[in-house]
Amino acid sequence: MADLNIKKGHNIRISGVPSDELQKGLKPKTVAIQPTDFRTLRPKILVKEGDTVKIGSPLFHCKTHFNVFWPSPGAGTVSSIQFGPRRVVEKIIIELAETEESECHDSFRAAEIPTLGKEQILSALLKGNLIPFIRQRPFNKVVNPMDTPRDIFISGWNTAPLSVNLDVILRRRLPQFQAGINILKKLTTGSVHLSINENTVSDTLLEVKGADVHTLNGPHPVGNVGIQIHHIAPLKLNDLIWTVNAQDVVRIGTFFLTGKYDPTIFVTAGGPGVKTPTHIKTRMGVRLDALLSEKLNEGKQRIISGDVLTGKTATKNGYLGFYDSTISVIPEGGEREFMGMIKPGSSLTRYSLTNAFIGFGKKFFSFNTLQNGSERYMVPINAWEDALPMDILPNALYRAIHVEDIEEMEQLGIIECDEEDFALCSFACPSKIDVGGMIRQGLNLMEKEV
Predict the structure, then answer these.
(1) Which domains are assigned to the chain?
(2) DSSP-assigned beta bridge partners for residue 301
């Protein structure tokens, strides 16, 4: 039996679930890093158009934490630096060289890593430009490497729609994952928590040593690290927790074992708009057309970098987000159905989280972008509460954020929250309210107060 059994939540039955087959993406001509992917970042650009860079070369650093640099996902020539409104840096695009070189740093044998001190590990992470792969709670932003977290959390189970199956992509990667765990243990005074599906078959997740392993069972969002923190070791005021994606644990371990930054990433391309949904081996910052070439169905499709609940709209000429490992494609919506809410139907033809239609509800649905209405008055029918597996009152918290009552927000647990944990509430909301977006507004207000 699982250590943590979650009842609330919902697994969206969206068609186009990626198969466990692993393909190799086309070799991209360009890659990019997008500073807008990082919350509160004020980048100082270190390169200019025409400069030559290596894999892992620093491209920019943070003006507030000047020792935190962001690595280049490819080697070649900086072909373009694109600016948005008010001169905000949106993209740094690198045209890849035929033969790529990597920045080289000190490497360590696996047996040496447990003997390294915290200062030595932090120094190596800073030199290798790997700090951006570690994020903090609260506020879900890149960490300050000078802080010491209470605990570090890693989710070994993705439950978001169409997401990467970690059992597939972590195969035969135990040495790198183990090295990553040993490194992260040195950075905290507490524990490294690893949460896995109770039915996992991954040798990497089952055989790793040194982490506090927790088995999970339940629907999405049980795989979200924020839900796991809430149930395993809740975040309190003035606490600091670091989180790392499972693939980035491998990336950190690989760096220490080889002395080189490895931009490899495994992603999924799935959804109703994809002909052959599958897993793809590619690289960080890849241009999306290298992954979606000849894979899209006919008609107008919306491409999303990320999952359908939390991702951002992109184009085939766009680039994969820094923390994204899913590319979702869904058809653009058409006309609203006349009298749609009261038209008879069944759960075999219409989707409902509230059993509004008769049927067994086991079918996968070809969702599109149509919302069937715009934002309207709140309808308190427990739709948010049923989708949120946290001991938090989402309606009361929403109202406190709406009136900017900082004290009330704090008492209602805003510090434990992140918008990704409330994304399913937005999907379930009969009033079409962007609950996750409101949570982010509240967190921004709290961050200013702090």
Answers:
(1) 1-24+104-333 (no CATH), 25-96 (2.40.50), 350-360+372-449 (no CATH)
(2) 331
**Cβ–Cβ contacts within 10 Å for residue 84, how many?**
10
pLDDT in tens, 120-136: 999 999 999 999 999 99
Which residue shows structure tokens 């434990």?
Answer: 416
Number of neighbours of residue 395 by Cβ within 10 angstroms: 16
Q: Where are the beta strands (DSSP E) in 206-364?
A: 212-217, 241-244, 264-270, 278-283, 301-305, 312-314, 326-331
CA 246 to chain centre: 11
Pair of tokens at residue 257: 């074992």
Helices (H), 43-170: 118-127, 166-169
- The conformation of residue 19, written as its DSSP 8-state character, comes to P
Structure tokens at 217: 């069972």
Phi first, then psi: what are they for 250, rounded to 5°? -60, -40
Quick: pLDDT tens for 336-348: 665 555 555 544 4
Contacts of 267 (CB under 8 A, 6+ apart): 164, 279, 280, 282, 291, 320, 324, 325, 326, 327
Radius of gyration of the CA atoms of the chain, in A? 22
* Predicted model pTM: 0.95
User: 3-class DSSP state for residue 42?
Assistant: coil
Is it the case that residue 283 has pLDDT exceeding 90? yes
Rounded mean pLDDT of 189-211?
97
Q: What is the pLDDT of residues 61-90, one digit of tens each?
A: 999 889 999 999 999 999 999 999 988 999
Calpha distance 62→39 (Å, rounded):
11
Do the bridges between strand 212-217 and strand 192-197 make them parallel or antiparallel, or are there none, so unpaired? parallel
What is the Cα–Cα distance from 91 to 82, expressed in whole angstroms?
Answer: 5
Q: Using one digit for the tens of pLDDT, what is the confidence trace for 107-118?
A: 999 999 999 999
Q: Which DSSP string do the residues of 306-329 spell out, in sequence order?
A: B-TTT-EEE-TTSB--TT--EEEE
Contacts for 450 with CB less than 8 Å, ≥ 6 apart: none
Residue ranges of alpha helices (H) inside 104-173 are 118-127, 166-169
Cβ(58)–Cβ(129) under 8 Å?
A: yes
